[in-house]
Amino acid sequence: MIVDHRVYTVRPTRVADWVALYREKGYPLQERYLGRCVGWYVPVEGRHDQVVHLWAYEDQADRERRRAALYADPEWQAYLAEMKRADLLLTMENRILEPTDFSPVP
Description:
By secondary structure, this protein is an alpha+beta fold. Helix content is about 45%, strand content about 30%. InterPro entries: Dimeric_a/b-barrel (IPR011008), NIPSNAP (IPR012577), NipSnap_domain (IPR051557).
């Protein structure tokens, strides 16, 4: 198993707007194509302009297959265009993580 760990940095004071747009239009599509969402988080302390979410995959090939299908969907492309027009996102980082041999697997 691998986990795609993503951190989005959003314009200051606009996290709620970004989350609302994602919840309405992005998440249903990602849930359909990507499968297993491990978690979606907003900060309580620390940087208040970042959002983190985690998606689990069988392996890198599974991740690539699922993400290719997502990107091929015209609804996803429309969502990305709407996000771009909203101009809420500053940066995105992602890391591919694998569990240690003693990690509880979600």
